[in-house]
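I would love for you to help me understand the pair of lines that follows before we discuss the fold together.
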Amino acid sequence: MAASPHPVLRTAVLHGAITGALCIAWVLFLYLTDNNPYGPKRTLSDFFPPIAAVVSQILLRRYYANGPGLWKSVGVGLLTTLIGAGVAAVGLYTFARLADPGLIEQHLVEARQLLANAKALYLKQPNGAQQYAATLKGLAHTPAAFAQDEFAKKIIFGLLISIPGGVFLRK
């Protein structure tokens, strides 16, 4: 393969941007199919960044005859995750700002109902009442809160996979 300047950065930006776009497309798909774009089905896109991190680590290997090494391999996975999570969060924020505010209210009604149905399970646990109240209070209700939630979840899953993936795919 032809030599490429900054293969780690190029690979991470490409795969991170594609991953973020896929996450945005998933939210739009949910919206267009009359599903709750803020609900539990949205979390299925949380698996996109870890998959993209591993794919970017695999594809980075084509630039190095003896493997990219530990730091480049882990770095491309982390950077892919960071870019993908950032693009997804900005996309969800933009969607939430542009979409009907009633969607957020509808989501909150559904989320509160789901929590009310699970209240008995919370109360069986030690400090269950406090956990229930904290979960209820912690529900995202603004576009910024949804974006923070999106970014945090995607970063966590991406980090959990990209570090061990980089270790195994360094050579």
Observations:
- The mean pLDDT is 91.
